[in-house]
Amino acid sequence: MEGARDRLDKLVHDLKDVCLLLDGVESDQFAMHDVIRDVAITFAHEEHHVFTTRNDVERDWKDRDKLKKCTMISLPSENTIISQLWPNDLDCPNLEYFNMTYIWNFSFKIPEGFFTVMPKLRVLNLVRLQQTSLPSSIHHLKNLQTLCLDKSNIEGVPIIGKLNKLKVLSLRNSYIKEFPTEMGQLTQLRLLDLSNCRNLKVIAPNVISKLSNLEELYLKECPIQWKIEVLEELKLLSNLASVELDIEDNKVIFPDLKVLVLMNIISRKIWDCQLPSSSFENLKELTLRRCTKIKFVFPYTITKNLQQLQYLEIKDCIDLEEIVAIEEITEAAASVVFPEVTFLELENLPELATFYPRIHTLEWPKLKRLEMKSCDKFKIFNSEPNSLCLDHKVIFPNLKVLELKSSLGEIWNKESSTYSYENLTHLTLFECDKIKYVFPLSIAKSLQQLQHLKLTSCKVLEGIVAPEEGTKAVVNFSFPQVTKVNLLFLPEFTDFYPGIHTLEWPKLKELMVRDCPKFKMISSEPNVPCFDQKINHD
């Protein structure tokens, strides 16, 4: 499945490069210009026998010779073409793709013999199908590889078990109550998505283990009454690379697991300290959301196994106090290294106070993006002696993007290492309501790669660089790469630096200031604490 996604991503990228596709609203979407779309639809029909609503019912749809050549059909919900043609005029022996989405019409029902006329069908997509059972003729689709019945009213699915060439099955948001024994016949299945099936309570025993080629399994937001023997079956799936589950039990081992998403876990811990050292050694992505009773994320020994971890996201775990927990036998000065992590996000963790509650060093040599929001006890960059926080031995040599929302009184202090932030390109602070200054002088002078600076709704922020005792000489600041500065809703903000200084922004292209009533952006008065006459920019 990962290879298929890579090929699709490359295809989309190539089409964007030649302007046949455009960027969509979201990062995982794309768009097409109206003119390109019209040409594509015409070409698809003429060269590949694709039928859509653009085709005339009398001229195209009722021409049996044309319909016998048809390879793809795509129809919206309100269309009545199928009802008009069935049963006499719908004969599609070469059809490989059938898509009918958002079938809101409760009166529409797929006829029982509908699928007998399309033996080559490989992809069937019926979103919001209103009927509660599938037509019996679906078992004729011996070549079907993808079946999508998202948001449908289908309740019983045993007949799907006869589609033994199926590779992708999606029943997201459907009304099924049980994943029955018959589904064990789907031995070619690669992806199974049962997410948000609110009535699904039973996974039949000895079914999951038979899906020997399964690579991705999604079962989040399902009220399944898990039995330990069913969970144990997951260990037999040697190809399983991505799984999303809502479960209470934490004793299942996935030696080849690459993506783990845990949501709404109500147990007090996630990991078993007795797990073999090989457990989770291939894990690349870990997401925890709304695990409301856990006090820590990892036991110290588990961190040694996470050498492939690249993505770590922790949100809405309201009792979480630390990321790594002390164990009975732990070195006096612990060393924690996440050599491959590039993305770290911590959000709404009100009790999180420290990464590890003893003396430690912490290295993130490849971390590029750090987002921290509403973690008001967590002093991530502070270096106070013996403080229970990420201390001065935290290393982020490749950090590029930093986004913070915090009620701490300071982010950095003058003892903070400049080495960890010299590659920073984007800094965003939002609602950091106790911070008076963004940087100490030493950090500010190390930000030679900074490009974007955005400060929003920081109630007591007075300046960007903090003054240092004993500094009387003119201080020279240069930000050679900065192109964009946004200062928004900063009621106490007065100046970049409160002392005499020069300031250079040679590449600055956008300066946005809004609702900063005390800010004197440009002044010619000597020695005033503001952006003075010695600002240089292009």
Write the topology of this structure.
Elements: H1 2-17, E1 22-23, E2 30-31, H2 34-48, E3 50-51, H3 57-61, H4 64-69, E4 72-75, H5 81-85, E5 97-100, E6 123-126, E7 146-148, E8 168-170, E9 178-179, E10 191-193, E11 202-203, E12 216-219, H6 228-233, E13 242-245, E14 259-263, E15 285-289, E16 296-299, H7 300-303, E17 311-315, E18 322-325, E19 334-337, E20 343-347, E21 360-363, E22 369-373, E23 394-395, E24 401-405, E25 426-430, E26 437-439, H8 441-446, E27 452-456, E28 463-465, E29 475-478, E30 484-488, E31 501-505, E32 510-514, E33 535-537
Parallel strand pairs: 3-4, 4-5, 5-6, 6-7, 7-8, 8-10, 9-11, 10-12, 12-13, 13-14, 14-15, 15-17, 16-18, 17-20, 19-21, 20-22, 21-23, 22-24, 24-25, 25-27, 26-28, 27-30, 29-31, 30-32, 31-33
Antiparallel strand pairs: 1-2
Radius of gyration: 29 Å
Structural class call reads alpha/beta
| Mean pLDDT value | 82
Share of residues in helices: 10-25%
Count of beta strands: 33
Characterize the overall form.
Answer: globular
Ranges where pLDDT stays below 50 over 5 or more residues in a row are 383-392, 523-535
What is the CA-CA span between the terminal residues? 49 Å
Strand content: 15-25%
Major sheet size, sense and barrel closure: 19 strands, parallel
